Amino acid sequence: MNIVVCVKQVPEPTGTNRIDPKSLRILREGVDSVLDPADEFSIEAALQIQEANPGTNVVVVSMGPDRALEAIRRGLAMGANKGVLVSDANLAGSDALTTAKVLAAAIKRENPDLVLCATESSDAYTGMVPGGIAHHLGLPLLSYAKKLTLAGGKVQIERQTEAGFQRVEAQLPAVVTVTGSINTPRYPALKGIMQAKKKPVDQLTAADLGFSPEQVGEKGAKEKVLGWAPAEQRKAGTVIKDDGTAATQIADFLAQLKVI
Amino acid sequence: MDFQLPEELIDLKKSIREFVDKELIPVSQQVEDEDKIPDNVLKQMKELGYFGLPFPEEYGGMGVGYMGYCVALEELGRANAAYSNILGAHTSIAGGTIALGGNAQQKEKYLRPMAEGKMLGAFALTEPGSGSDAASIRTTAFKKGDRYIINGQKIWITNGPYADVITVYASTDKTLGPRGISAFIVEKGTPGLEYGKVDHKMGLHGSHTCPLFFEDMEVAEENRLGPEGTGFYTAMKALDGGRVSLAAGAVGGAQAMLEASVKHAQERQQFGKPIGENQAIQWMLADMEVEIHATRLMVYHAAWKLDQGQRASHEAAMVKVYASEMAGRVADKAVQIHGGMAYMHDSPIERGYRDVRILRIYEGTSEVQRMIIAGDLLKNSSKN
User: Fold this and answer.
1) CA distance A74 to A201
2) pLDDT digit string, tens, across residues B282-318
């Protein structure tokens, strides 16, 4: 069985993203970058399937600059067998749909039975790439999995909803996005870290996947970012000074919110 | 000459730092207060491979050499000293003597499970009457058929209360002095092996020592490490690695105290400005940084020598004495910078101040290290 896990290197998520005012892209230079923590859940899900089904091949695929290799290596250290990095200057500025198209082409080469993605990346948060990948591969998409089981050539998930969950299934091959509640990702074993560099990583360009420079990157983008704005600051709370009635005022406030 | 760590070791360092920050530092006060590392933390460390760092991969180890081992202990040293202490006793000296003096069967039977974290090791050399003068041990081993009968007593044995494998040093021929000392692998549960009360220590909480008593304890001949009379030399060689790795832990502990001191100097306001704007504080911070950096380079150099298969007794003695005394000076300055809050029991600086004091004593006191260093100097200069 072949499982492909899509991963992305993102700026250290505990920091604040800075935007390049010219290109309107997230600044990635001079910032500490890590494997998107959201991707660790999909890698863990793949490794758990691998442990239960010996012989399963887990491939981590990423599109990004050369240094995204570090993110792939983290996946290899956790236990994935192989990495694929699509890296090409022509790909810079690709929109979500182009990214999905390129990733789908890279994934197809691996002949996957299951493709796992995070629901969205922790930097740009478009959440469109997994759907795009499923579209280009012509595969069903099961989203927001908080539980995933494989049986009889099918994948069944518990799909997280606001109210609870739905149980849905699809015939393999399929694309599944997983949420952060699906598992607890492992730390890479020390041996895994030492072996990660020895594991194979295919490095591909857009041309290797059959795309011309016009089809990808900024030129191929159908979507254009018009601007960025900082998130609205949370309004300051009300400060109640105790003049002897503070407890009543707080109780009234809470009662008004219907929390007491 | 290349001062850059290999890429794998940089990844290893990063990953261990992440583990220390996320898993060990959050429970550091709990470890201190309860004098116990939570079982699940130790279990996780065993599974991740922390117990077999320098051992060869063919025996289940990580094969990262002394350099990788020291990088790991430095990072672990940023949390409680208990971690590098437990690992040091298990790896450097208990596992180290089996790796150095054991035969293939012994390595397969003991070193592999130790490296895989399935067995914990202890090293039993020190006795009530025999500390720095290690060759004066009174524990005896008499051969009887294909077994040895061991009698005697050991004290302050790290990991002693729960070790699965103990390397025990005993005299097989008292007339030969150090050349009459042999090493034995003793398993937990061996009849005649008795345990004393767990010691109450000034620091190193979470790591435990106890006395061990041997009363007509029978050990099979196949569990003797190397030929009779080689035990003392194997122990001394293992202690070279032990001293270097101990210094690595000291660097980590000192680094943590420096980082806390820098943060405190920036945040603590007195007379309307951060105390770090005072030259008196700046000089302390600068001195801490200089000494830590110097020690780290000494650690890397000694570890590199060991990885080249060279004897490093001289370098090990130098880095051991320097690191342990450096850590004491750094801890003292950290207390001074933090002021009264560092005198409180729930301060990591207070813990660090107590924890570093043992460094100048165990695995060879500062005085013994200076004896080794000066002895080498005088011996070499008399040859010239």
Assistant:
1) 12
2) 999 999 999 999 999 999 999 999 999 998 999 999 9
Element (H, E) at B163: none
| Better-predicted residue by pLDDT, B380 or A176 | A176
Instruction: Name the pLDDT band for B384 (thresholds 50, 70, 90).
Output: very low
Element (H, E) at B81: helix B81-88
What band does B150 get if pLDDT is binned at 50, 70 and 90? very high
CA angle B84, B89, B93 (to 5 degrees): 125
Q: Please tell me the distance from the alpha carbon of residue B182 to that of residue B176, in angstroms, as a whole number.
A: 11
Q: What is the DSSP letter of B4?
A: S
By Cβ distance, the residue of B7, B18, B48 closest to A190 is: B48
Place of tokens 């780290």: B296
Give the residue carrying structure tokens 């370098």.
Answer: B315
Chain B residues whose C-beta sits inside 8 Å of any chain A C-beta: 7-8, 11-12, 15-16, 18-19, 44, 47-50, 53, 57, 62-64, 68, 72
Contact B67, B10 (CB under 8 A): no
Phi, psi of B50 (to 5 degrees): -65, -20
pTM: 0.87
Give the DSSP H/E element, type plus range, for residue B19.
helix B7-19
State the nearest Cα–Cα gap between B76 and chain A, in angstroms. Answer: 14
Paired residues of A235 in beta bridges: none
Architecture of domain A2-232: 3-Layer(aba) Sandwich (3.40)
Instruction: Give the one of A188, A190, A197 whose C-beta lies nearest to B50's C-beta.
Output: A190
**Of B335, B331, B307, B308, which is closest to residue B77 (Cα–Cα)?**
B331
Domain ranges of chain A: 2-232
Tally A–B CB contacts below 8 A.
40
Evaluate the omega torsion of the peptide bond into residue A11 and state whether it is cis, within 30 degrees of 0: no
Q: What is the percent of chain A with per-residue pLDDT over 90, rounded to a whole number?
A: 68
The conformation of residue A237, written as its DSSP 8-state character, comes to: P
Contact B72 A194 (CB under 8 A): no
The span from the CA of B45 to the CA of B43, in Å, is 5
For A195, which residue in chain B has the nearest alpha carbon? B8
The tokens for A48 are 């758990």
Low-confidence ranges of chain A (pLDDT < 50): none
Spatial distance between the Cα atoms of A7 and A24, rounded to a whole number of angstroms: 22
Q: How far apart are CA B200 and CA B217, in angstroms?
A: 27
